[in-house]
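Hey, I was hoping to borrow your eyes for a little while. A protein chain has come my way and I'm curious about its shape. Take your time with it, there's no hurry, and the full record follows here:
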Amino acid sequence: MEKTNFAIRFLALSLLACALVSNITNSFAQSKTKAYTADIVVYGGNSAAVIAAVEAVHSGKTVLVVSPDTHLGGLSSGGLGFTDTGNKSVIGGLSREFYHRVWLRYNDAAAWKWEKHSEFGNKGQGTVAMDGESRTMWIFEPHVAESVFEELVKENNIRVLRDEWLDREKGVEKVNGKIVSIKTLSGITVAGKMFIDATYEGDLMATAGVSYFVGREACSVYNETYNGVQADIRERGHFFKDPIDPYKVSGRKESGLLFGISAEPVSPNCLGDKKVQAYCFRLCLSNHPDNRIPFPKPESYDPTNYELVARVLDTGWMDWFAKYDMIPNRKTDTNNHGPFSSDFIGGSYDYPEASYAKRKEIIAAHERYQKGLFYFLSNDTRVSEEVRSKMSKWGLAGDEFADNGYWPRQLYIREARRMIGVNVTTENEVTNKKAVPDPVGMGSYGMDSHNVQRYVTKEEKVQNEGDVQVHLKGPYSISYGSIIPKKDECTNLLVPVCMSASHIAYGSIRMEPVFMILGQSAAVAASLAIDRGQAVQAVSYNTLKDKLLERGQVLQNDVILQK
């Protein structure tokens, strides 16, 4: 009898254990496939994504941020601390609020760890760091920017799903031209009334079936002057001023081309192509002995990859340090500069359309290239003692990106996909030659494209092509139609980053303050569309305009159209 009772109790306990295991397994499965719902769903983790989410809350809407990134802020917290501002008077709304909060941080003496505020001063190559009158600061360290973005998220109780990647094959459900929900690779589903693609790549836009373009349009497409191939432009010192042999063994074509030089002949000027301007990492360096990490030697390091820069230095070129732009605490925002620098020319072509795995490889290739370059200039005897001596004073900042080997987490995606929306912003709008309908923000930075390719001239010398720098006479407006798709493609999506613009116009728009401006405007428009049960294309511009002005956005100026 006791044996029978024991068997029954054992069986009952076994069944209970199985049930508990089953419940735990089911709960885990449910947590991995949990469904979320919000009025506005923001896909992305950069500055525009955070600002769009903050505005959604201010507009009284529920919001969810689905972020592929673990760290928020994109390039603003990823090394670009020497802000490309242009005319600061046109930066309004939450974008200006961000720079105000940075200003508040640096008014605290505790922020100045590696130098005194008085030692830093207040200017950096023509840019005012701290504008006391407007209570803004435009030059800052990466970790300070990230902390401000996290502060905004916390204050507004914004839920952020981090390290969640859109399923680009079947992750967008659309019904009658509207996105119903999106799904991530981990199985999470997020439903919403309105969606904002705030990524640098435009993955949600593309997966939703919205038209876009990659590369450079021919000048004839939008009646432009500076689009397409621009081999005759020689500005700002980003070309080879002195003739330099392109071959591994000078004068011997049969020896092959040096690393990074294309054998493809350059096309005639103004012709379009699918090539993308160069990317790089904006390095945060330090010259403080207690905060300086020596430049690491990357895996698969090959010093012959940098023979070309050695030949440039042999000509007497000494501007390598010209874009070590100083930010607080004896650090830099180090950008590309000159004929051979941190831009990995030709390495970006496949990135916009690449799979996640391929993009990871491309990012790693950029990291190896740039690490190898700085290691070469610091250690190789092919480089002059003068340059190596100056390089020895610099290293990676020891208090930035510590979880990533002190290396920036965000590659500078200067340009990827660009939507073909209701309105396409071209150089004609940017130069105020053409009126802009329904403005939702302003830009002012010059039209700026980095080099696209490195080729061999007819004289068998190396040359760069694609760097275009066009100064603007004044700020310009950006149309609402440039951040929304065509109605027959999607009625509840807004795209403030990969917005509708030509290659050369985007070269001006693609600045972090502008992305934040457009992110806020997108969220205001999304909220109005929800309130009225409308497509984003049907939102009353007069109502939108009033709301944006209430939010402190700057929409237009008094520039007279040029005849």
